[in-house]
Design goal:
Elements lengths: L5 H13 L10 H15 L7 H14 L7 H13 L2 H25 L9 H14 L3 H24 L3 H23 L6 H28 L6 H11 L11 H33 L8 H4 L11 H39 L9
Helix pairs in contact: 1-2, 7-8, 7-9, 7-10, 8-10, 8-11, 8-13, 9-10, 10-11, 11-13
Length: about 350
């Protein structure tokens, strides 16, 4: 009998399984038993151990284990695994924070040259207040106040060039307010440290530069009818300051001069709206007018918008005057603070060897 191969056995099993051949037809007893076992395993496959058997096997395996203590390398690996879990979230938060800071910084830079009519002007004001909040020493606050004052003077010059005299009045009055605040901060420490005295000198030099800039703007704008009114406001900044009282320190004198200039700007703003208010009050109401006036024909429709424009102009000028007066009051308060601070600040006694 020829020796059968594994392929022959497999083919024989398939023939018997498909019914093409009977199991009894296989003459070789060993081969017949092999085919029978194969068919039986196919019909009744091997089943996994039951739950009790699995539990017993697990207990034996675990009982035979002898775990060793954690080494330093194991502890370091576990620590890195724990620290690595929040890493993706931390990187995302860092990326979002970086994007927000970049956008905020870019917006702040772009808004630095904006004026009151621009959309980014509120961002500029917010950044200025943030800088003031972060300044911790009088010297730092004085420098921030001086920077804000320079911004207001630049805005006033730009607005005056555009013929927007109402907003130019507000910006110029705020210039005087912040200038007085800067001097008031330096008045607290000007006699304590030589650095503060140097800052007072620098402040006076900056003011001289501001006067020159304002004088150049006045010379350029005074001849134009559309900008002559705004030039009058800048002329207050360009005018030489009155001599300060002899009992004031240099910083307190600067604060007093800034308060005086701001008060003059407020007076200009109030005089600007006073004629309009007076003429409006001089018009008698409809009930007190003569009867003949009521029989006049109705004016054409295109003339009815004139009183509304006058009212809007008057209200805008009044708002500018109110803002200027508020800035003048703040400047006066800063000048008073500077005067009191310079008196409280003792003059250091020189030490002789």
């Amino acid at each position: 009998m020829a020796r059968r191969t594994a392929k022959d056995t497999a083919r024989l099993i398939e023939e018997v399984a498909r019914g093409e051949r009977l199991l009894e037809e296989i003459k070789d007893p060993e081969l017949r038993e092999t085919v029978r076992l194969a068919l039986r395993l196919h019909k009744d496959p091997f089943t996994a151990p039951d739950a009790r058997t699995r539990s017993r096997i697990r207990s034996r395996v675990l009982a035979s284990l002898r775990p060793h203590g954690a080494t330093l390398a194991d502890r370091v690996t576990i620590a890195f695994e724990i620290l690595a879990k929040p890493a993706p979230y931390a990187m995302r938060a860092f990326a979002v924070a970086a994007i927000v800071l970049t956008i905020a910084a870019s917006t702040s830079v772009v808004s630095s040259g904006s004026v009151s009519d621009d959309a980014l002007y509120s961002v500029k004001l917010a950044s200025e207040q943030a800088r003031l909040a972060l300044a911790t020493t009088p010297e730092d606050r004085a420098m921030v106040e001086l920077t804000i004052a320079e911004h207001r003077l630049a805005e006033a010059t730009e607005l005056a060039t555009q013929g927007n005299d109402d907003d130019a009045i507000v910006a110029t009055s705020e210039y005087g307010e912040h200038l007085a605040n800067a001097a008031a901060e330096l008045a607290q420490v000007e006699t304590l440290t030589p650095d503060a005295q140097g800052l007072v000198v620098q402040l006076q030099q900056k003011i001289d530069t501001h006067r020159a800039v304002a004088a150049a703007a006045v010379a350029r704008l005074a001849d134009s009818p559309s900008t002559a009114s705004a030039a009058q406001v800048l002329a207050v900044v360009a005018a030489p300051a009155d001599p300060a009282a002899s009992d004031l320190s240099p910083a307190a004198a600067i604060a007093a001069q800034a308060a005086t200039a701001t008060d003059q700007i407020a007076n200009v703003a109030e005089r600007k709206v006073t004629p309009v208010a007076t003429s409006a009050a001089a018009i008698p109401p409809a009930a007190t007018r003569p009867a003949a006036a009521t029989t006049r024909p109705t004016a054409p429709a295109h003339h009815t918008e004139a009183p509304r424009a006058t009212t809007n102009e008057r209200s805008r000028g009044e708002r500018a005057a109110e803002s200027a007066r508020k800035a003048a009051d703040e400047a006066k308060a800063a000048a008073k603070k500077a005067k009191e601070g310079s008196r409280r600040t003792p003059t250091p006694t020189p030490h002789h060897p």
